[in-house]
Write a structure and sequence with these properties.
single chain; alpha/beta; Rossmann fold; 7 helices
Length: about 130
């Protein structure tokens, strides 16, 4: 299972430099093997709204959760302490700590372009790495 970080989804949605790589990853990995945190989903909604691309968000949700089988995960209230505890040894931003805890819950690999995860014991993989496996 793969926890897909916010920056991966945005790379494709905003047609950024590595959009094709993300597209290949999305085409190759079954959606039921993908995990998204609710934090990512809400962040993407906020970013698309600020960029004036509100109409993209409902299509994105439909693609992932209605037509696809991406798992949406919320960090439980009782795990917020774990989230804060993760911040001490690795010093990630709050959003990265949130992703870390979500990935740990499912023993998922973190798919991200964010090198901050490299400082953690979970590390990260990029879409291109998965495509060459």
């Amino acid at each position: 299972m793969y926890l897909v970080d916010t920056n991966i989804w945005l790379e494709r949605l905003l047609d950024q430099d590595r959009s094709d790589e993300v597209g290949d990853f999305s085409a190759r990995v079954p959606t039921d093997q993908l995990l998204m945190s609710d934090f990512s989903l809400h962040s993407i909604g906020i970013i698309l709204s600020r960029l004036g691309q509100r109409d993209v968000f409902p299509r994105f949700v439909d693609d992932l959760f209605v037509r696809g089988s991406v798992h949406l995960f919320s960090v439980r209230s009782e795990d917020m302490r774990v989230l804060v505890d993760v911040m001490a040894p690795y010093n990630p931003d709050f959003d990265d700590a949130h992703q870390y805890v979500a990935a740990a819950e499912f023993n998922a690999d973190i798919v991200s372009f964010d090198s901050d995860f490299d400082r953690t014991d979970r590390g990260r993989v990029e879409p291109s790495t998965i495509l060459t496996e």
